[in-house]
Records
---
Amino acid sequence: MSRSGRYAVLALSMILGVVSAPAFAADADLTEIRKQIDILNQRRLEDANRIRDLEERLAKAEAATRQATADAQRAATVAAQASNAPPPAPPSSPNAFNPAISGVLDGKLGSFSKDPATYSLAGFPLGGEGPGQRGLFLGEAELNAQANIDDLFMGSLTFSLGQNGSETEVGLEEAYILTLSLPGGFQATAGKFLSDIGYLNSFHEHADDFADRPLSYRAFLAGGVKDVGARLTWLAPTSTYLRFGAEVMRGEVFPAAGAVHDGFGSKSAYVRAGDDIGQEISYQAGLSWLWTAAGARETGALPDVFDGKTDVGIAHLVVKWAPNGNPVNRNFKFQAELLRNHIDGRFNGLGVARTDYGAYGQLLYQFMPQWRVGYRYDWVSAGDVPGTLALSTLDAQSHDGTRSTAMLEYDHSEFSRIRLQYSYDRSRLLGADHQFLLQYTATIGAHPAHSY
Amino acid sequence: MKRLIALAVATASLVLTSAADAKVAVFTCEPEWTALAHELGGDRIDASSATTGLQDPHQIQARPSLIAKMRAADMVVCTGAELEIGWLPVLLRQGANPKVQPGAPGYFEAARFVGMKEAPQALDRSLGDVHAGGNPHIQTDPRNMLPVAKALTDQFVRVDPAGADVYRANLAAFNTRWTAAIEGWQQKAAALKGVPVLVQHKSWVYLIDWLGMREVAPLEPKPGIAPSTAYLVELLSKVEAEKPRMILAAAYEDDRGSKWMAEHAKIPAVTLPFTVGGDAGTDTLTGLYDVTIQKLTAALR
């Protein structure tokens, strides 16, 4: 009730009291009435005080509200300014420098008209794997971690996990450091790495265009040379790509063995050149040489023992074409390598010196996004053996191994691939083998960056 | 012997003088940065791009010629934001050039100086080939050239302090010209405001934002994954109600999806240059946006 309202009620009650008094009341009553009026007056004073109190509190509350609103507005302005300022430093975190981690998953389904467990490549002791397995089997799963170590080095570590029967085999695929900032176009690598000889050797198998390696790689390099060593390369300051490289390796893996020459068993040297021809064609060509020595190298189940030198020379050429140089929709790739393999030593204690040759050529065509077809022709030819080694593993009995392979591939994204491959294989001493492989390859984790 | 010494001296002096006159060799990942570098660097730089307007910058092979170019570069100018993640790291590693490694003054990523759009909430490859830093196709909005130009000028000055005055004068001239040009384009493109469009790949968010158009849907089911016909049929039935007016595609993209959609939705498929050199008349940055606006407004008629 407002103040004027209260006064009106008070005045009305007083008038009523005054008016009614002379009509009905005696003197005694007057005293009573005066007392009542005093009480009313007293109450009016109390009410007035209370009202003033309330008004003061209201004013205070209103001021407080105004202050709060102003404060809130000022805070909002500051917040808006703060959002334009650079973000605060992130909290320190021990995993902020985690390396880029990626994994490769690879599984296969094989069908062979001849039992792959009895496979032998006519004229060659095998240092690595054969054509595969019947039924479902797992290719190598790989786990890679890499990162810059500091401003001078980067490091890369790759494990491979293979399933062999009921056992899981852990392998060290690569573990190396590489310089990032040597002057003059030099780069040095140390550790365990894939050798840069040839073309295919420097790639992990899951990056290949076919589900298995060429026969010549199988015969001369056991699929590919990876060994402990050091490498120095020099990139020439020319407008045409020109790189020279040299490697020294421990000489622990096929065709070397036993880390002879005090742990410097293998050496290699190579040169690579490449350029564009117009906007649509690019190429890379190279010449490589690998010198190895083996001390008591054992291959096969029996086993065969080899002591001596093996030199491998490789010439390679890769040509790629894409309309407007844009490979996403359609592209074409030609790849060929010619290998010469020379051995000089003692095979099962019997002297042998001979030269073998091998080659493969392959064509790949991506005819629309996601789909590729490919064809590869393979050939290996073993040199003659002395009569003392007739009918040994080294004796191909004048049989040249050949193989024709066709494949169809679907790449759903950059990270997954399904491939169907058929080979007509005549690399055994006797008879032809029809080989079917269905394969998936998938990449998880860090985005892969592909070499040419 | 005397002749040999004379020859050696002549060669050495040739090398020295050519070093003194040498321009800053700039390796750019995309042609728009070549054009911008030339606007700002003028005669002091020599820029060339690893890709052309007809190539998909996501998927370039680390060709030998590019490694040789990387070796000779004084500066690398790229978009960044993971656009070149499939090939630039290989070139940087194999190029054996300490001057242009990330962190060195010779390394420049344009996307670091632009407000990025579409930074994903979750990083999962089931969402397609997403870029953690956001959509990297920043060059489709000419306003983005202003902050990039300023940052690139600063970087030129760091690499080539002798040319500081030239770079700064070029930047001032560029800013004036560019601000006026943007206003001109915006006037010409006024009719595009609110126009609903389909896009082949999510390449156009910055362009669409600039001109106030509305993206209805991309034709790709996931970034980097080509649409199947079945998917396009489904998409068509979903977007018909929104009445998209055109389909935007880049010059380098496979045009089967956009052609199919154009035929069935009865709307034009507009092949935009996407970058410098992506179409006739787009040899300069100005030409790029001239042609883009002209093609868009033509499709509206």
---
Amino acid sequence: MTQLTLDDLRECMLLAVGYDESIDLEQDILDEPMGDLGFDSLAVMNVAREIEARYPVKVPDESLDETMATPRRTLEYINGLLEEGVAA
Amino acid sequence: MSTRALVTGLGIIAPNGVGAEAYWSATLAGKSGIDQISAFDPSGYSTTLAGSVEEFAAAEFVPGRLIVQTDRWTQFGLAATTMALRDAGVEAAGMPEYGVGVVTASSSGGNEFGQREIGRLWSQGPGAVGVYQSIAWFYAATTGQISIREKARGRCGVVVSEQAGGLDALGQARRVLREDGGVVVSGGTEAPLSPYALVCQIKSGRLSDARNPDECYLPFDRRARGHVPGEGGAILVVETAESARSRAANPYGEIAGYAATFDPRPGSGRPPALRRAIVQALADAGRAPEEVDVVFADAAGVPEQDRAEAEAITAVFGPRGVPVTAPKTMTGRLYAGGSALDAAAALLSIRDAVIPPTVGTAHLDPACDIDLVYGGPRDARVRTALVLARGAGGFNSAMVLTAP
């Protein structure tokens, strides 16, 4: 089944900020808060839209500060949604 | 009220040149930036000509994350701000935390961005609308993004008064300096050339439908038939004399006088208020009409508006009493960007002792008894310049700029 990998997420994150040179996602980012990685609340919403454009999933805008607080939380959350979608 | 407002930096994005010196040399050479619209196929529209900024590469000036968040008009503003601050030698990092303010003008906001997102809404649904639509269309977006990027945390604002906006923003910048001191980044930009924006303007009835770039925008000419739009504008660094002195800055000139008036409602029988703006701006500057060396005209390109402007000028200065010019004939009307660009051009006139030409216009409307500078630039000692701007809907603004 479809899964969001860390590399896929990196790509969605870079797309969401126009491949900005100041954004470095090559380090160990899994547990870094989105804000520390240079993603404010609108940028995180934009990441959610990029994920939706590529995966059969609808990401609610509510509580993104929790559901997508870090890349690890984001992967767990999105892959959970993808699994639910398959189950449904 | 004694605080002097000096202009110490210029950033220019114009259809006939990106960067102050590129714009100015093209303008003195009479090189126009008006041509067929190339961003989309304009053949289905009554207006097909415009002043497009072809040479602008946003990525040279604006980081990727801001390109995603902003309309072309804001990208012009960010780029022109970078140029202006560099020109002025202002390092935001070296300024007091609240020492730099931002006041810009916009008359139509983020057209291209908004059109794209509304297209997505109608074709793909609400989920396809990008999150940055929420901030990118809005008139204040350029001021806000400049403030964030340059860490300019002083007083900020935006003025919306169509073509008068650039002068109104500079007038507000002077007021901020009187109250807060320091530095203000000011001026205006516009990007009104998306299909949606063009349609909005065509509706005004003031656009030219000419197909020949040499005949599409002829203010004060017997053949005047409207104007063509253009994109771009100018950002100016304005600061108090104290601030300029402390940085050993080399000012272009001073915002010595400013006034804004509003026309009476149509049909009232009362005269338009442009003349009153001129008189009040001169009084504010403490200058007599005979001290003015050049007038940068609003130059609507619509016969009755041209005549009204010529009447206002001759009423104050006498028939052919002062050289009048309209370099915007080489860019089209840039709306909020237009009067800011005229202010920048007036300061360059003062610097180089030369009046840039009006192009296109060759057969002066006999009802316009003004000394129009056309056919080529005119050498002249310029110590005091008057810039006029009228915004659709009744806005009139006049600004007196003087040598430092």
